[in-house]
Amino acid sequence: MVYGKILPGVFLSRPNRFIAHVEVEGRTEVCHVKNTGRCRELLLPGVKVWLEESANPARKTKYDLIAVEKEREGGPLLINMDSQAPNRVFGEWAAGGGLGFVPNLLRPEMTYGSSRFDYYWEFSGGAPARRGFWEVKGVTLEEDGAARFPDAPTLRGVKHLEELVKARQAGYEAGVCFIVQMAGMDHVEPNDATHPEFGAALRRAARMGVEVLALECSLEPERLTVKGPLTVRL
Hints:
By secondary structure, the protein is an alpha+beta fold.
């Protein structure tokens, strides 16, 4: 996926989860943050961030905060923190044959049971015809070269895994895909220290036949592209 007009800024503060104050070209701008998560380890005063300028003159905020450079030993790590990006990236990848086939149908935001999954797909290129669901999770937490999910407790994430198990038991294929929004990670693993229930639910889902996939991305401030599979350690 590719953004529009991109420019750098310096993060100053985050009054609430929706907006941030950013220094842009010598002035302070109120920017929309495209991630309502905590991101406490990323949005630190003084870090370099990247903004997308909106083409809509009627918007209250002119810019969206989409990426941040995390300072670490060995140099800064560019992290895309746009929570809408993983679904778009997965959709482009799957539609282009990333799953090993080109789906006849790839529909976003599909309700099943008491959950709404990110994608429903159908494929009739073989016998029998196949169908299934994918739930997509964006990963922005890096610790010692590992990508970990979640960065905060997520009861919704546990519920999604439980519903994927039910869909699998009902005859659908089912999977959860972790889109790693940074490059150079060694592997992906559940963040048991932050939310052990999610890790337990993920392991149970894997045992019950739910596919667990992680995709590494190559990225620049203006683009995010799937590079290939990344090891998942359960």
